[in-house]
Amino acid sequence: MNPHPPDTESAQPPKIECSNVTVSFSDHQSVLRDLSFVVEPGRIVSLLGPSGCGKSTLLRCLAGLQSLQNGSIFIGGQSPTMARPKMSYVFQDAGLLPWRNILDNVGLPLELEGTPTSIRRERSESSLHSVGLAHEHFRKYPSQLSGGMKMRASIARALVKDPLLMLMDEPFAALDDMLRSRLNELLLGLHRRRTRTIVFVTHNIAEAVFLSHHVAMLINGKIVREVDVPFAQPRTSELRSDPAFVQLCGEIARSFAELAETTDQMEVV
Questions:
Q1: Based on C-alpha coordinates, what's the Rg of the chain?
Q2: For residue 161, what is the DSSP state?
Q3: Tens digits of per-residue pLDDT, 24-34?
Q4: CA-to-CA distance for 38 and 183, rounded, in angstroms?
Q5: pTM higher than the cut 0.85
Q6: Which terminus of the chain is more solvent-facing, meaning fewer CB atoms within 10 Å of its CB: N or C?
Q7: DSSP 3-state of 168
Q8: Which DSSP state fits 203?
């Protein structure tokens, strides 16, 4: 069951168009510099790069949370602030309210909109089931859940309004490799069942390649290379040991190593 049935007029995932985006902070240092790129509708695109290269700042710009000094962003032909009701944002930290049980945490976006209790509960339960959390966990509090369960609940909360665009800022970075891999596969499964445009921030090359249709590589606030990922869907754990997958990850790693010689940004995981 879909946690929030889409209306027929707005059910298409949006295209994202960024043109000459520049963002500078108070010290006049440019975090994003004349950055342009496009995310096609329904695609998963990873923003990949070292810490401090501008990935999260760009994600905040897409969400309408960061003003631009120059350039423009359009999401489905609208400004980010106008498109915001159709998007959700998943942070690195699950961000669950410790005094609310998991069901109530997931239903919070609907509660803030004034959705009736019965409908809110139905959609929240459906969203939790979609991320693989059993009914026995619904009344537990965040402190009673593992890190992986908390992140599943965070994703369920992001899905509860059935967004057409998901912005995800390193949501699996704090998890161990095995759990991270399982949640990567969960995200791809969710995308197969309901196509959305997804922009995923990471500094993990293998994660970016496994998840994405397209990878945009950032260095010093600029997209320096874009890579189409050729592997067909559905993708399973076996892909990670495929020689072509390993080769593509290696090529991207070598690109960053070459660029790092001139940028002094060496931290790529």
A1: 19
A2: T
A3: 987 667 799 99
A4: 26
A5: yes
A6: N
A7: strand
A8: S
Q: How many Cα atoms within 13 Å fall on the side-chain side of residue 155?
A: 26
Residue 187 CB coordination number (10 Å): 22
- The CA distance from 22 to 221, in Å, is 9
Per-residue confidence (pLDDT) for residue 140, from 0 to 100: 97
- Lowest mean pLDDT across 180-184, 243-247, 265-269: 265-269
Q: Quick check: 223 and 192 in contact, CB under 8 A?
A: no
Supply the pLDDT for residue 6. 42
d(CA 53, CA 58): 10
Taking the C-alpha atoms of residue 233 and residue 243, their distance in angstroms, rounded to an integer, is 17
Average per-residue pLDDT for the chain = 91
Sign of the C-alpha dihedral computed for residues 19, 25, 29 and 31 taken in this order: negative
**Percent share of the chain, pLDDT over 90:** 84
Q: Which structure tokens are listed for 126?
A: 């459906």
How far, in Å, are 72, 186, 210, 226, 242 from residue 238 at the CA level? 40, 15, 11, 25, 7
What is the Cα–Cα distance from 128 to 101, expressed in whole angstroms?
A: 12
DSSP bridge pairs for 225: 217
Position 5 pLDDT exceeds 80: no
Task: Specify the DSSP class assigned to residue 133.
Answer: -
C-alpha–C-alpha distance, residues 170 and 103, integer Å: 24
Q: What is the mean pLDDT of residues 166-180?
A: 93
